[in-house]
Design brief:
Helix content: over 70%
Strand content: under 5%
Oligomer: single chain
Largest sheet: none
Structural class: mainly alpha
Length: 230
């Protein structure tokens, strides 16, 4: 957690767009592999969930208070912010339309699965850090636009986004197992196969919750935020 916190001032100060998510992901990945080598699948999942919470909180705070513009540093940050503010102001866009957001989410999920399996989840965690950073950039933009702090805290990170992040964090552990087991054969013996299915169900449940909650709540969420923008 401390290394993840430190990755923000270091990455933002250097200013290279891809360096920030790599620095964010590196501490988590080291601990993830260490846990899996010891056969601690549950410990690896907890590690990733704590890491994701740290990235969400620290990233948002850092983007609010960093003294220089960050548009060129946060990958997809300005574009995502523009998309989300347009949705809040007009009610139009992918956020509130299942016909638009579901194909996008399926592409993200497919890319995460392919990259995760191919890289032992290293690339997938970097991808996840980049995705969370542009979401944090949007939440920070709400604060900078004058939305009250209590509303930014309660409404900035939507419940469907939280479900998606938790699901992807869990998937990251499962996707790392095949390659980790090849590189470290002892890990395969220590990881209990009979617990894997429970984590697969948990990850898939989080993904379905993301889709359902977004479809159900996004229109109301947008109206609440529209009323709070100055």
């Amino acid at each position: 957690i401390l290394a993840t916190i430190a990755s923000y001032p270091i990455g933002l100060a250097i200013g290279h767009p891809w360096l920030l998510p790599v620095l964010n992901a590196l501490p988590a990945y080291i601990v993830l592999v260490h846990r899996l080598r010891k056969g601690e699948r549950g410990g690896a999942v907890r590690t990733m969930l704590w890491w994701a919470a740290t990235v969400a909180i620290v990233g948002t705070v850092a983007f609010v208070w960093w003294p220089e513009p960050l548009g060129r540093v946060v990958l997809n940050g300005p574009a995502y912010k523009t998309e989300m503010f347009r949705w809040i102001e007009t009610g139009r866009g992918a956020e509130g339309n299942i016909h638009l957001f579901l194909p996008q989410h399926l592409v993200h999920l497919g890319a995460f699965l392919v990259v995760g399996l191919g890289t032992g989840s290293a690339g997938a965690i970097v991808m996840g850090a980049a995705l969370m950073n542009y979401m944090s950039y949007y939440v920070a933009a709400l604060a900078k636009a004058g939305v009250p702090p209590w509303a930014v805290t309660l409404l900035g990170w939507q419940p469907w986004a939280i479900a998606r992040v938790a699901a992807f964090a869990t998937l990251g552990v499962l996707l790392a197992e095949p390659l980790v087991s090849v590189v470290f054969p002892s890990a395969k013996e220590r990881l209990k196969a009979n617990t894997r299915s429970a984590y697969i169900v948990a990850a898939m449940s989080g993904i379905l919750a993301d889709w359902f909650l977004k479809f159900l709540l996004a229109p109301t969420w947008g109206r609440w935020l529209r009323a709070l923008l100055p």
